[in-house]
Amino acid sequence: MQCVVVAERNVLKKTLDRKPRLFNFPHSLHIEVAYEEPQRLPDSDQLRYLPSKTITTRDLHSATPARQTLIQAQAPPRKKPNHGKRPLEVARMTSPAYRYSPLSELVDGFADIYGVVVNMTLPKKTSGRDFCMTVSVTDESCPTRAAAIQVNIFYPTIEKIPKIKFVGDIIRFHKVKIQQYQDRIQGLSLSRATRHLVLREKANGSLEQVTNSDTWTFESSDELRTRKLLKWARKSLAEDDTLPQGCSLAPKLLSELKFAEGFIDLVVRVLNVDDCDEPVRLTVWDGSGSAEESDQVLVRALQDKGVAVPPYGLLKEVIMSSCWLVVREMCFVDGMLKNWCRFRNLAVGVDEPIPGAVIAPGGREILRFREVSSFVLMPDFALDVRRRCSLMGTPNSSITANNDQLRTCSPTENRVSPEQVVTVIPDRIRKNIPVTPLREILSSPQTPRKFHCWARVRSIWPNDIEKICKPKSGNSDEFIYSFALTVEEGSECLSIIVYGKDAVSQHLQQQM
């Protein structure tokens, strides 16, 4: 078993002198230790680490008595070693007054930090007098949503709460309290001590600064740090496929609601907001599913308001009641119709009556925004948005046009033709075996049996295209294909396992 002992050199030497066989060291032991010396930031509880240094040790075995006596005679008298807690040297800083710590280096105490917002909850009333909102932030040292630092923000009114709108917004905290909670670092923003500043880039390239303070600092170093984080966030959010804390599943598509239970997350476009009466109703769409399955009540509501109805994709409705006031106070309404939106913890119900709505045969899924639900706007470059845009085979800019543009375009102009792919079907099948609808396949009493069907691929597992190819057992030069497809036709859905000869490498990769 490997054992590492860290102690002062004279302690190790005395131990080896008294018990030379305690450790089975080679005679000429040589140890290199690489370390980063911590320094305390001025007027702060946080640390800064100096560049890495490497030190070496001499042989820990006792020297010959004559040599040892000579060394002791020539060596200056040593001070008595201090075995107490070693105080840290205070770092010498020539930078601005505020010293910002990387998120991965935070320790208990107060800190000044910058972070990229990757998740948030809406403000909720606590058992006391305050409202609480939780924000998850990342930076280059904590680059994934799963490793994000959570900051709980407390203020007596929603007006004082940070006005975060988008995933990807930058937030700066001064004097945020850092503490350990359930073995994780957590931030605590207190209304009397902490100051915040929310930053985002405008369309013209300038930085929008939002805070509840009457005065605040923002120097050239702050702008450099903000723009560096914004650039990093564009790349990070476009690639990060981890899930934020508290999220067990990735956001679902609207076409998958029939399989959903309890609470779900969605990333959708809001096409219409009906806030004339209680409750407020939002018409949402993400490009998945069939437009034929949409409730005609929702279709007519869009047409009556002059909103172009998407020619493809399922329409659904999100019902909000008292939470709408919070969404409005957080200034989300203006951007809701112009950007992709993420809903968290929407309650899924079936067959709940809605006045004036026609319930489709077999039941209809109802989405309700509860007290535990949350909302945030999503940038076009986020991975969840790009995945939904890929359903239509269109770049983000085409799909995320605002509703003013949708109103001026006809439905045929809004539709984006998917990329054309070539499916190779043997002539003997194409000519002799007719296409069977999924509905008939699912109800067929003859199983097992081969069918020729025409359906839309909704999903593939595994998601990584490189993982569908596996080497044959005992032969690393030959490969087989093994993956699962979920296909749909209208309201019918079927899972298909593709294995071995059912897949052809070149054609398969072209179609995926």
TrEMBL record:
Keyword terms of this UniProt record: Chromosome, DNA-binding, Telomere
Single annotated GO MF: G-rich strand telomeric DNA binding
Main localization of the protein described in the UniProt heading: nucleus
Domain of life: Eukaryota
A cellular component annotation (GO) from this entry: nuclear telomere cap complex
Compartment list: Chromosome, Telomere
Short name of any one Pfam family annotated for the protein: POT1
InterPro entries xrefs: NA-bd_OB-fold (IPR012340), POT1 (IPR028389), Telomer_end-bd_POT1/Cdc13 (IPR011564)
Segments forming domain Telomeric single stranded DNA binding POT1/Cdc13: 100-234
Keyword DNA-binding: yes
SMART domains: Telo_bind
A Gene Ontology BP annotation from the UniProt entry: regulation of telomere maintenance via telomerase
The protein's name in its UniProt record: Telomeric single stranded DNA binding POT1/Cdc13 domain-containing protein
Organism field: Phytophthora nicotianae (Potato buckeye rot agent)
